[in-house]
Amino acid sequence: MKAQKFTEELRKMSAEELDAKLKELKEELFRLRFQHAINQLDNPQKIVDVKKNIARVMTILSEKNA
Questions:
Q1: Predicted pLDDT of residue 50
Q2: pTM, whole model, 2 decimals?
Q3: If we measure between CA atoms, which residue out of 66, 65, 64 comes closest to residue 10?
Q4: CA torsion 7→58→52→23, rounded to 10°?
Q5: Cα angle at 41 between 57 and 48, to 5 degrees?
Q6: Which of 5, 18, 24, 28 is the most buried (most CB within 10 A)?
Q7: Is the pLDDT confidence value at 6 over 70?
Q8: CA dist., res. 65 & res. 29, Å (int)
Q9: CA 40, CA 54: separation in Å to the nearest integer?
């Protein structure tokens, strides 16, 4: 259910806002991977969730650009 709500919020955003969100998610993924590498990440599932959110944003961006 949370993913559906996130997707609905993304669809309401403009292309510029989606670009900013994509940049923010990529930075978060970098930080999570870094924490995972030095064994300070409590929940490795967060990496998977952020990757899926990045894919969602990229999908909606491509829909808006088409």
A1: 97
A2: 0.92
A3: 64
A4: -100
A5: 30
A6: 18
A7: yes
A8: 24
A9: 22
